[in-house]
Amino acid sequence: MIEHGKRDVFAFLVLILAGAGVAGGVSHAQADEMQVFNMDIRDGVITPNRIEVPAGTTFKIVVTNSGHSPAEFESLSLRREKVLAPGVKSFVVIRDISAGTYKFYDEFHMDQPSANGVIVAK
Hints:
By secondary structure, the chain is of the alpha+beta class. It has two domains: 1-33; 34-121, Immunoglobulin-like (Sandwich), CATH 2.60.40.420. Helix content is 25%, strand content 42%. The chain is built from one helix and nine strands. The strands form two sheets. It has a five-stranded mixed β-sheet with strand order 3-9-8-5-6, with no helix packed on it. It has a four-stranded mixed β-sheet with strand order 2-1-4-7, with no helix packed on it. The protein is globular and about 35 Å long. The relative contact order is 0.20.
């Protein structure tokens, strides 16, 4: 049998753990709803070089460097950058993007027009 004071602590802990489970469920549901875009950077060629998303959403860009030289996904306006060695895959998450056009580029290949792109939020 649990003593009165210990029973109150036990009940409090059960409520905390139950609340954490509910919050975890919400986070999981939101993660399942996140849009994912795949992007390939190959020696200065970004594919796709245009991504359209609904404004106010959170999304993930999975970036793969399939080239033979380093690559970097960089966007000054979004304050995101990700450097990738050849053969590496990683991701960037962009949260609650406002309507507008956001430029990004591969900083290692800025001399190539194909190393630029845009994210358009509508």
